[in-house]
């Protein structure tokens, strides 16, 4: 057997689901160049009727919402959760609140910005303002705090939804991955928590994929042609 065949990477299908404008495509673009072993697809809203096809055989499903839009979380439960019925029976589910940079100062720092600590960010935010002699328009909330929108979905809301996913799937919470580990807040714009999300999923999915592959290799196979031949011989001997 060629060495390349022996070293073939396991097939891991990851699907992103979520309402329009929650940032699925941006999340996808932010990791496809760096997470080579994953096959990631993102179902678009206009193809919602084909969503079950996207999820067929998926090893992991990322249910994505916008942290500034409560309705985007509600849509996951009302419209998208049922599409996961065709996923792999051992599928892993992650609940991801994107656009965290709009509500969280930590998420506003790009992952490419080296040497800037969280303490430095806090220091910049608490510096006293120097008043100018010239009158200026009042500062907007975004310019004062770096947050442009109010956060409508809390982490606790996402964790509660994760619990409902488990119940929908008929899974016991005690025997399932904890909500604390499977609920994330990310920013596709700055890269905040994106690597952590996909690395966590990959670390969880890969062992089960390899285990299933080994079980398939070790299970005995049946040669149908050989069985047919043996059956014909038995039939002839019986007739004689």
From TrEMBL:
Region (Disordered), start-end ranges: 126-146
Domain of life per record: Eukaryota
InterPro entries listed in its UniProt record: P-loop_NTPase, Small_GTPase
SMART domains linked to this entry: RAB (SM00175), RAS (SM00173), RHO (SM00174)
Keywords in alphabetical order: GTP-binding, Nucleotide-binding
An MF annotation (GO) of this entry: GTPase activity
Pfam families the record matches: Ras
Family indicated by similarity: Belongs to the small GTPase superfamily. Rab family.
Name listed for the protein in its UniProt record: Ras-related protein Rab-20-like
Biological source species: Scophthalmus maximus (Turbot)
